[in-house]
Amino acid sequence: MANISAEVKAISAAMIDLRRDFHRHPELGFQEVRTAGIVAERLRSLGYTVRTGLGKTGVTGLLKGGKPGKTVLLRADIDALPIHEQTGAPYQSEHSGVMHACGHDAHTAMALAAAAILAKEAPSLAGNLFFVFQPAEELLTGAAVMLRDGALDGVRPDMGFAVHVMNRLPAGKVAVRSGAVMTSADRLEITVTGRGGHGANPHSAIDPVVATAQIISALQTLVSRETPPLKPAVLSITMLKAGTAFNIIPDTVAMEGTFRCYDAELRQALLAGLRRTAEGVAGSLRCTAAVTNEFLTPAVINDPAAATLAREAAVEIAGGDHVAEWDPLTGSDDLAYFWQQFPGCYAFVGSGRTDGSPSPANHNAKFDIDESALAIGADLLVRAARKALRTA
Ligand SMILES: [Zn+2]
Ligand SMILES: [Zn+2]
After folding, report:
1. Ligand of minimum distance to the alpha carbon of 139
2. pLDDT tens-digit readout, 119-154
3. 2 pLDDT exceeds 90?
4. What is the pLDDT of residue 327?
5. Most buried of the four, 52, 66, 95, 274, by CB within 10 Å?
């Protein structure tokens, strides 16, 4: 059994109710009007100085402690996904085609619970509490837009913490890791251009479809042959658009994909390799290839000191046997933009089934969490924040 602190236990039922309310009313990125409204109202009622409309629907809350000191930032993401929920839960989404399938409803409820507990202690705290409720994490754009809108103006966070629920980890367990935890993400677009013609007369056309097939195969060597084996990288071509009829060779083929890695230098090298390979293979087949990439987010890198504090908090709550050092993930989170501004730790709170049966994964229409994760996550935020303020 987890060793949940009394303050968290006292509001656990209310936290679960609030999570279910958010779950019933999920909102997509940059449309989190209802969610942001509830967050702002709660923070104000707790005495926080609230700013809204940061990155369209982002909210921040600042509360100064009784004595001067450091500033600790706690961040939650608030958006949902375009998925039609199929859990059949009594608190199932009431918005058709929109679902909290990544647990951001839980993150929002946990952070608000932490905000309530820490607000009570504020008069005796040395330092400041700063909460960030970020929109559009699933679009990997909310953090950058919040920062562009000046979310950190007038605030200098010394350390930050955030938690993400994870169904691959059974409830009761927590994963904390120092260093790289989530990859950078690029969206890729490659357009291959040839010259269209009759499908029966390929010699009088220049076929971009055959060139595309070879480009996709050749791109596999970027990871298998050009990436150091001990450095992770993922390149996936996920969309292909070409052609209008069975007997027409099209002028162009458009592909999209995603590219993830940890190492900024490796990222640059592989992007250059991507261009070289696509253009070179296309050229050898008389086509041209235009490659563009949209840099969505850098990698999430946890600070060693912040990770130590988060791990201490996790061990106090879950017990040492239940705190895992986890492999880095190949998913991405634009929390990375915040961690570039100040040291932080992103911890993963187990929310999966505890009977050994597999839980539906994050982003699945049947995704739901073991709600005991809420108390653990909220307690982790509270304890980590207290520790960060105490460290001189
Ligand atoms: Zn997600
Ligand atoms: Zn998520």
Report:
1. 1
2. 999 999 999 999 999 999 999 999 999 999 999 999
3. no
4. 83
5. 274
Distance (angstroms) between ligand 1 centre and the Cα of 323 equals 22
Q: Which ligand is nearest to the CA of 78?
A: 2
Q: How far is the CA of 317 from the centre of ligand 2 (A)?
A: 23
Is the whole-model pTM more than 0.90?
yes
Residues 6+ away with beta carbon under 8 Å from 153: none
Query: What pLDDT band is residue 328 in, cutting at 50, 70 and 90?
Result: confident
Residues with CB under 5 A from ligand 1 (ion): 102
